[in-house]
Write a structure and sequence with these properties.
Layout lengths: L1 E6 L5 H8 L10 E4 L6 H11 L8 E8 L7 H14 L8 E6 L6 E7 L15 H15 L24 H11 L6 H13 L5 H10 L2 E4 L8 E4 H5 L6 E3 H8 L5 H59 L7 H7 L6 H7 L1
Antiparallel strand pairs: 1-3, 2-4, 3-5, 4-5, 6-7, 7-8
């Protein structure tokens, strides 16, 4: 399994090339120049910049292809695969590339230092965020050709299921991890936490949007658009350049389902649970009310029996006929409309 990542570095190009070519990390047979010679790569790249008068700004791009420590691969095979990758990568076409494989750790990895100026026409190296995934796909394809394992989404470098925060960009990853540990405040982290809190209790899309609004997060959710956009209202009002993020980005960072379908399903479950809880509460209240009525009835019955006993005692003395015991009458529970009840009343 080989992973591809972009490395953010502001060191001078000479410093980077000197680092990747250190003798304690590699050897000459593991160094290959594409469009340049490994021994003079820094000078050749600088000459290209001078030729097209583009010596300012970013002077190179740095990528690393790493194999898992348990991968059945040698340093030579890792380098051979890396060279094929550099030769076939569309982004690298027309640019000088230095590929150097390191063998000083428990896994083999190759550094690619790419000149920022094309030696063919002088255009600057440009890369879209989606093109990093294209590079990963090319790496996986080459690994298959060599009979090696490939990366699986949601799994770590050593094949374990990933549960923590990830990002294709090192800077974003570091910010998210710092936000998780409480070292800094991240609007991405704040939005994610607000979404997770609200989706557990919201019973509809409208309810979800209202609850997020109360937490300072605006929501752009349209049936005509593929993704949901979440906006940090405070950052937006203060003129910050970064204040919104789409749900698909949050899914990549946190490996949590923030899709439209996933959220809608959770709202439906919450609504059913809320209705069930409401029904149970009404039934409980009805039972309590019935219990109160029974208690009142018992109090009235006890009061009648006390009066009956008083009358019975009085009639015992006078010899008059005493009416039936009200408790026994209650136990029979005759209907007021029944024949026996009518006869008794007569």
């Amino acid at each position: 399994m080989a992973v591809i990542k972009a490395v953010s570095s502001h060191a001078p190009i000479n410093t980077v090339i000197n680092y990747v070519c250190k003798k304690e990390k590699t050897e000459r047979k593991l160094m290959t120049g594409i469009g340049c010679s490994p021994e003079s790569a820094a000078d050749e790249m600088q000459t290209t910049k001078l030729l097209y008068h583009k010596t300012g700004g970013r002077t190179y791009k740095h990528f690393v292809q790493s194999f898992a420590s348990g991968e059945n691969v040698t340093a030579e095979i890792a380098h051979e695969l890396a060279v094929k990758f550099a030769e076939q990568c569309p982004l690298f076409q027309g640019f000088e590339v230095l590929a150097v494989t390191h063998q000083d750790r428990n896994h083999f990895h190759t550094h690619f230092v790419v000149n920022s100026v094309s030696y063919i026409d002088g255009h600057k190296f440009q890369m879209k965020s989606t093109e990093l995934q294209d590079m990963k796909n090319l790496s996986d394809s080459l690994c298959r050709q060599y009979g090696l394992s490939i990366c699986r989404k949601g799994y770590s470098f050593d094949g374990r299921e990933r549960e923590d925060t990830t990002s294709y960009h090192k800077e974003t990853y570091q910010l998210l991890k710092q936000a998780e540990s409480g070292e800094i405040q991240s609007y991405v982290q704040n939005i994610a936490l607000a979404i997770m809190a609200c989706r557990e209790i919201a019973i509809s899309r409208k309810d979800f949007i209202q609850k997020l609004s109360s937490k300072g997060v605006d929501v752009e959710w349209s049936d005509s658009r593929k993704y949901i956009t979440f906006i940090d209202i405070d950052r937006q009002e203060h003129g910050e350049t970064k204040y919104k993020i789409r749900n698909n980005k949050l899914e990549k960072y946190y490996h949590i389902d923030f899709s439209k379908a996933g959220l809608e399903h959770e709202f439906e479950v919450n609504a059913r649970n809320a209705e069930t809880a409401k029904s149970a509460a009404e039934q409980l209240k009805h039972r309590i009310d019935r219990g109160s009525d029974a208690s009142d009835y018992r109090i009235r019955t006890d009061h009648c029996r006390t009066e009956w006993k008083t009358v019975q005692h009085k009639h015992h003395i006078t010899g008059e006929r005493t009416p039936p015991d009200p408790e026994q009458t209650t136990a029979r529970q005759p209907s007021r409309n029944s024949k026996k009840s009518q006869e008794y009343e007569r």
